[in-house]
Specification:
single chain; alpha/beta; 8 helices; binds adenosine-5'-diphosphate; binds magnesium ion
């Protein structure tokens, strides 16, 4: 059973705009660590937002964990995302006035499921454990997230995405600000955690050299039939 299944998905950013996504079929198996690559402007971020239920296609079905996201109302889609999807953005989107620990705990405030996923321990314990496993010691937990280095902020973003063990982790070019050395270490941490948690990972990048870290690599051009030239124009 695939964990995600798209059929005949069409998405455009406005009524007068060309199609940005035109995808006949796309399936992701549970436990896959999928690398999705393509040049800038090829619709990678748009696709991730459709997978996460942030954007709704004008046509087609987006089945995630047995729910058709295109059929849910806004509230139920937001609930689905809070419960089942961990998001890691290019800019990390940490909340500047919250501490490291508060940033990691944020998804738990929006999801009963993620508050209770670790039945044995408290969410605070899980947050501390995650931060430690990601190499972020207790000396920085009370600091504002924006006081950290880029590499540290990235690991906070991973902890925040993974708290409560969501089934799907979606990462949009999270390594683009890192040098090659730190990029490799960051990737290994993320992949290890996904493996340990049994989370399915969808990782997007334009950097094809990262592909060999993943269980499957896919070019968005093989997936998306939308006319990219027209999009770029
Ligand atoms: P990628 O992530 O591969 O660089 P995007 O999905 O961001 O590609 O963009 C694909 C196309 O969708 C862009 O060329 C742009 O025209 C359009 N697009 C992306 N984001 C927006 C937006 N917020 N509003 C309007 N159009 C957008
Ligand atoms: Mg993008």
């Amino acid at each position: 059973m695939p964990i995600v299944s798209l059929k005949n998905v069409k998405y455009r950013w406005g009524p007068d705009r060309p199609l940005t996504l035109d995808i006949e079929q796309f399936e992701i198996e549970s436990g896959e660590r999928l690398f999705l690559h393509g040049p800038s402007g090829s619709g990678k971020s748009t696709l991730l937002n459709v997978l996460a239920g942030v954007l709704v296609p004008e046509q087609g079905s987006v089945e995630c964990l047995g729910h058709d996201l295109a059929k849910l109302n806004n509230r139920d889609r937001d609930r689905f995302r809070a419960d089942h999807v961990g998001l890691i953005f290019q800019q990390f989107n940490l909340v500047p006035y919250l501490s490291v620990l508060e940033n990691v705990l944020l998804p738990c405030h929006f999801s009963e499921r993620r508050r209770g996923a670790d039945a044995g321990g408290s969410m605070l314990q899980e947050a501390r454990q995650l931060l430690e496993q990601l190499g972020l010691g207790s000396d920085i937990w009370k600091q504002a997230a924006t006081q950290l280095s880029v590499g540290q902020q990235q690991r906070v973003a991973v902890a925040r995405a993974m708290i409560g063990k969501p089934e799907i982790i979606i990462a949009d070019e999270p390594t683009s600000a890192l040098d090659a050395d730190r990029r490799g270490r960051f990737l290994d941490l993320l992949l290890d955690k996904c493996k340990a948690f049994g989370s399915t990972l969808v990782f997007v990048s334009h950097d094809l050299s990262l592909a060999n870290h993943f269980t499957r690599a896919l070019s968005i051009a093989d997936l998306n039939r939308a006319d990219l030239q027209e999009i770029a124009a």
